[in-house]
Prior knowledge:
alpha/beta, binds flavin-adenine dinucleotide, D-Amino Acid Oxidase, Chain A, domain 2
Amino acid sequence: xxxxxxxxxxxxxxxxxxxxxxxxxxxxxxxxxxxxxxxxxxxxxxxxxxxxxxxxxxxxxxxxxxxxxxxxxxxxxxxxxxxxxxxxxxxxxxxxxxxxxxxxxxxxxxxxxxxxxxxxxxxxxxxxxxxxxxxxxxxxxxxxxxxxxxxxxxxxxxxxxxxxxxxxxxxxxxxxxxxxxxxxxxxxxxxxxxxxxxxxxxxxxxxxxxxxxxxxxxxxxxxxxxxxxxxxxxxxxxxxxxxxxxxxxxxxxxxxxxxxxxxxxxxxxxxxxxxxxxxxxxxxxxxxxxxxxxxxxxxxxxxxxxxxxxxxxxxxxxxxxxxxxxxxxxxxxxxxxxxxxxxxxxxxxxxxxxxxxxxxxxxxxxxx
Length: 368
Ligand SMILES: Cc1cc2nc3c(=O)[nH]c(=O)nc-3n(C[C@H](O)[C@H](O)[C@H](O)COP(=O)(O)OP(=O)(O)OC[C@H]3O[C@@H](n4cnc5c(N)ncnc54)[C@H](O)[C@@H]3O)c2cc1C
């Protein structure tokens, strides 16, 4: 049985631990925080990530999550740019982050040991293994230590790393009764979105253009359409994070006996709502490649070859969407909103045409 160290117990790290355990590794998870857990916010889980969790035996995701409803896009005064419509698009489910983390952790068996309050500051590898802090040793190390990864910094000291996106994000959960299906509202350099969780509460998120390091309340939304000010006022606590992503091109996700995973490898802006989903998919892919061959170098090379191109595209697409959402130029905003409005109508029309054709087929008498 091989031994593995997973650095970091965010969603990526705990999923990696479960995936490695499933294919026969003995795993030590090292987390610098004093306790395991996740922040009080919602998270979108796309079907591809839900499928990996199911493959890994993680149970209860369906019962704890709320399928997203088709959502539209509004202007700050409440006028619709694209109204919510049944477009037949693939949509994510929404789940509370802490609940997701708990569900994954509940799959930890005797092959997984956890050390909290343990910060990795030093690592070295040789042909036989990886040593952490001159203290622990394993055959394989998975770095899931987030966007400011110490492991990535040690392996690739020349790499520029995090790059400020130009905006800060706010998140909260409000306990309100609303007669509103949610969706996103795009303003000038500002965006607000909200969606219902399975327990009836509303998870909301907002972004505002500003220099990094400025802590403040999201007062910009005080005059936006109902229920936005009520959602903010109705939240017990509001999280604020300056948004960074990683510089392109990304560094290789594998070096010797070390693999990078999740934000440590390719942190993206949250605009696509896919960062944690990709980390889950990385864990699934890593386990698959480690099962396919006993040659560690070959497995990690195949993992990098599969995941780096996909996630490079996601980082790029998310960045582009972020720029579009946060634009302050009146011309670009008019073009953007016009394009979204027209796009929404065309897709809705295509959806309706599909429905009409389906209904014609349904009513056509069966042939001889
Ligand atoms: C506002 C916002 C909204 C988002 N919404 C979504 C969404 O809806 N859907 C989605 O899929 N993604 C979303 N994301 C992205 C998602 O949150 C991240 O991609 C994901 O949480 C990354 O997980 P991770 O495990 O790779 O890293 P992290 O969650 O950053 O975990 C890293 C862990 O490593 C630990 N650590 C760090 N350094 C060390 C060290 N030296 N030694 C020991 N431990 C260490 C940290 O304490 C931490 O626990 C969003 C992000 C933001 C900011």
